Each structure stands twice: as C-alpha cells, then as structure tokens.
Automatic annotation (TrEMBL):
Protein's name according to its UniProt entry: Tetraacyldisaccharide 4'-kinase
Molecular function (Gene Ontology), one example: ATP binding
Organism annotation: Halioxenophilus aromaticivorans
InterPro entries from the UniProt entry: LpxK (IPR003758), P-loop_NTPase (IPR027417)
Top EC class for this record: transferase
Pathway membership: Glycolipid biosynthesis; lipid IV(A) biosynthesis; lipid IV(A) from (3R)-3-hydroxytetradecanoyl-[acyl-carrier-protein] and UDP-N-acetyl-alpha-D-glucosamine: step 6/6
Length: 343
C-alpha cells in the first residue's frame, strides 16, 4: 500500500500543477511541450477521413484523465440501436494483457485480456466490441466478423490513422482544460483549438460559473440510476443502500473525485480511497476494510467480480445527452457518408 500511496501522491502533485490557472512547477518542462506540439501537429495533418466502411464516430477527449466519454459511448449505442442500427465498438483496450490482436471482447472475456473499460462496455452495451492498439485493424476486424453498420471508437481522437466520419470531444465541466498547456506542462493531448475542428463538444456538467466552458459545447449530465451488487447483479434503489457506519468508497478512474462528489450528493457517509486509473484490483487491496460495505464505479466492478463480497456494490450511472445532439449527429452523418445510415 505504501508504493500505491507514493504513486498517488506524485500523480496528485502533477494534477495540482496541471489543473490551475497558470502552469506550476511543470513549467520547467516547457521545451518538451514545444516538441510535443510539433509532433501532434505533424501527425494531425496525416489524419484519415471516412473510408468505404461503416461510418465511424470517434468519442474522445483532448485532455488526460476521465471526462465521462465512456458513459457517452453507452448512450450513443443505445440511441443508435433505437434508430434501427447495428452498432459496434472498437477501442485500444487500455490495460489489456492479450498477446493477440484484434481481440473480440464479450461477457466471458477475462478482464486481464480485455481491459476494464472494454469489458464494462461489452457487458453494458451487449454489442460487438473489438480491441486493438491499432484501431484501424480493429475497425477492419469488426466489419469483417460482425454484422455492424456503424462503429463507435471509444477514445481514439488522436489515433489519426483511424478513418472517421464524426468526431466528438468530451470535456469535464469542473476541471475544464486545466492550465490549457499540452503535455507535460499541462494535461492536454492536443492544443485547445482542436475543439474548433471536431463536430461536437460535449461538456460533462456545468462549470463552476454555471455556464458552458466553450461556445460550441453542449452540456450533458451523468445521473446515478441504481446500485448493482458486484457479486450477484442484484439491483437496489439509490436510497436503499445502508451500512453500519460509513461506506468504503474506492475508485480507480481518471477523475476519482467525481465519483466521491456523487456519493456526497447522495448524502452517503463514506471513507474514500483513490487508486491509479485502471488499477488492477486484487483481494488484498480490500483486506483492511474487513466486512464493511464497499462501493465503487462500474468500471472498477468488472475487475472485482471474481473476489467480491456480498456487500460490495457499484453505482450505475447514465449520460443524459440533450436530444439536439442526436439530431445534429443524424444530419452530419448524412452529409459525411454516401447515404444516410438511418435510411
């Protein structure tokens, strides 16, 4: 646990410098930022537009850390299916230990092979999911082996070799773009002006001022739905979760504070522990909690199902995306493809 605490302290120090109005101590890395920007600009010029394949919607972000893009992917899959389409998902499969790619992920795939986010998507969306560090290869595989007529790339905004019809960037309403510097001085994977080049900017929650951070941003919310038992799948209404004393809340996501803030809004007493994003949980991580009730995110639950206790729960959330976003997607897809996928 000491190693994890040290690593978390270092990550917290870096994020504290990134997510403030001006660069902090990471300013000493400014020469590396200049080099990074040049590499990004060169690669961006080589990006590929939509090819003769099912249309691809890329859902990503331009900053490091969690913004809420994966719940957006889930919401898009549900909407596309409601329109009579057959969506599929491709992803890098971050954290995958598979030795062979592309890899089709389903409910039976070991999470060590799939990675946590893609296993969660496979369980939640019940649609074809394929991972490959080379997303273009994942696209070819999913179109050749599955009956899909539209593909969503979970992340991949900076994977310029992947053809795409639509680009959606997701930003965090509270943290925004931090000091607006690129790595390693700030949290940005691409310069801020990249937001003017995507088709849609979705903002996860309002900013501290109560306004969208950018003129072209559409605000959506993540809403808690119910509790799900990590071991059995039993569901409980939000207000029905009880415990003797405070809950043990753990999170290994890009922005753990968002999960903890949600628990606070639900008026639940809890002790919190944040782990590194994509942390591979083991039973030992929970040894100090004894028999206390543990709560976590859906992404973390897929890594804990094999050793979960009866009183471990994850919070199911959904992205509430305004209807005009879907209208805009319909129009843009019709313009970017030879024929509308909705015909």
């Amino acid at each position: 646990m000491a190693g994890n605490s040290l690593g978390q302290a270092m990550r917290s120090a870096i994020e504290a410098s990134w997510y403030q109005d001006k660069p902090g101590w990471t300013q000493i890395l400014a020469p590396l930022e200049c080099l990074y920007r040049r590499v990004v600009a060169t690669r961006f010029q080589r990006r590929i537009k939509q090819l003769n394949s099912p249309p691809v919607i890329v859902v990503g972000n331009i900053s490091v850390g969690g913004t809420g893009k994966t719940p957006c992917v889930q919401a898009l899959v549900l909407w596309l299916r409601s329109q009579g389409l057959r969506p599929g998902i491709i992803s890098r499969g971050y954290g995958s230990q598979s030795e062979q790619f592309p890899l089709a992920v389903d409910a039976d795939t070991d999470v060590t092979l799939s990675g946590d986010e893609t296993k969660m998507l496979a369980l939640a969306c019940q649609c074809p999911v394929v991972i490959d560090p080379n997303r273009k290869q994942a696209l070819l595989y999913i179109t050749e082996h599955f009956d899909v007529d539209i593909v969503i790339s979970d992340d991949g905004l900076q994977h310029y070799g992947l053809p795409r019809a639509i680009e959606i960037a997701v930003i965090d309403g509270k943290r925004g773009l931090g000091n607006k510097h690129c790595l390693p001085v700030g949290p940005l994977r691409e310069p801020e002006q990249r937001l003017t080049q995507v088709d849609l900017v979705l903002q996860n929650g309002l900013s501290t001022t109560g306004e969208p951070l950018y003129n072209n941003a559409v605000v959506f919310t993540l809403t808690p739905v119910h509790w799900v038992n990590v071991k059995t799948g039993e569901r409980l209404p939000l207000q029905s979760l009880t415990a003797n004393g405070s809950l043990c809340a753990v999170a290994a996501i890009g922005n753990p504070q968002r999960f903890f803030d949600t628990l606070t809004a639900l008026a639940l007493p809890f002790d919190s522990t944040a782990f590194a994003d994509h942390h591979q949980f083991t039973a030992q991580d929970f040894a100090e909690y004894g028999g206390r009730t543990v709560v976590m995110t859906e992404k973390d639950a897929v890594k804990c199902a094999a050793f979960a206790a009866d009183n471990w729960w994850y919070l199911k959330v959904q992205a509430n995306i305004p209807e005009p976003v879907f209208d805009e997607l319909t129009n843009r897809l019709a313009l970017r493809t030879n024929s509308s996928p909705f015909d």
